Amino acid sequence: MTNSSNPTILMTGGAGFVGRVLCGKLAEAFPLSHRVLLCRNGLGMSNGWETAVADVTDFDAVGMLVSRIKPDIVLHLAAQASVANAQNYAEQTWRTNVIGTMSIGSAVARFAPSATVLFVSSGEVYGANLTEAPTTEAIQPLPQNPYSWSKFAAERVLYDVLTTDNKLIVARPFNHSGAGQDRRFVLPSFAAQIVEAELGLREPQLQVGNLEAKRDFLHVDDVVSAYVGLLRASPRLSRSTVVNISSGEALPVSYYLAEMTKLSSARVEIIVDKEKMRPSDVSCSCGDNSLLRSLIGWSPKISKAALLQELLTSWRNRYG
């Protein structure tokens, strides 16, 4: 980083679930920084972030912004984040996830050639090579769907397009959740349905997908703390670093559902919905977090039980 105490920070995807949390944590971590959020509209900004309105795939607009502010740190989160939506809207997924990343990468290479870039990829890129054992960064990615293929392609775009003086951190987070996450995702879907059943807003039935799949979940705050820690550690990292962000423990989706129902007064019937089954679902997705621990001394602070309770509470509050 050029200015370690008061860097200029550019971030994409700050209006999303993770981005909103990260905006606040970056403001705390770098209080003297100049912080700029690139987004498609200027709504809902806070924590002292300047808003730059543009589409991430607009090469000219992104180039003009980067040339103006010359960021020391770039965090690229903007993406089509839903695997299910990526299946249905593959062209849009590739456009956002790959063309948008190329737009950011080429602008940084031209106008901020010594900036540190943190790109949020996904543990999904390991795809068919995910096994029961926690997956390390040494495992070759083998994507299985438009979302993971586009994320893996975007990693390569940045590796090729950025300069040798740019520092690239590729974060591969596994599943994470928390209050405010869209109900398209599995744990918020469970929580929303349970609370609706509690309140009599739906029949006491839960529509679910594959409950036997094993998943490695973190709280979003633990994921964000890893991002901030990696940025702080960036001066001592190599030119290109790929790192998993995960708990290292995968449990069946049925476990998360059972624990959530224990926290509710509702008695619900579980109904498997074939529409919620993903055609390329892997049986177990678990990341090895040894490298992350060694790089920044990170460990998850929020338990799975606390995560599940938070999700239920957030939906109860939403319904008043």
> Strand tally, please?
14
Q: How confident overall, as mean pLDDT?
A: 93
Strand content: 15-25%
Oligomer: single chain
Rg, Cα atoms, Å: 20 Å
Strand order of the largest sheet: 3-2-1-4-5-6-11
Low-pLDDT residue intervals, each spanning 5 or more residues:
none
Order of helices and strands: EHEEHEHHEHEEHEEEHEEHEEHH
CATH architecture of the largest domain: 3-Layer(aba) Sandwich
Considering the chains and any ligands shown, give keywords for the structure:
Rossmann fold, seven-stranded parallel β-sheet, UDP-galactose 4-epimerase, domain 1, alpha/beta, 320 residues, 2 domains
Structural commentary:
This protein is α/β, with parallel strands linked by helices and 320 residues long. It folds into two domains: 8-176 and 218-245, NAD(P)-binding Rossmann-like Domain (Rossmann fold); 179-215 and 249-285 and 302-318, Alpha-Beta Complex (UDP-galactose 4-epimerase, domain 1). It has ten helices and 14 strands. A seven-stranded parallel β-sheet has the order 3-2-1-4-5-6-11, with helices on both faces. A three-stranded mixed β-sheet has the order 12-9-14. The protein has a two-stranded parallel ribbon with strand order 7-10. Strand 5 (116-120), helix 5 and strand 6 form a beta-alpha-beta unit. Helix 4 runs parallel beside helix 5. The model has no long low-confidence stretch (mean pLDDT 93).
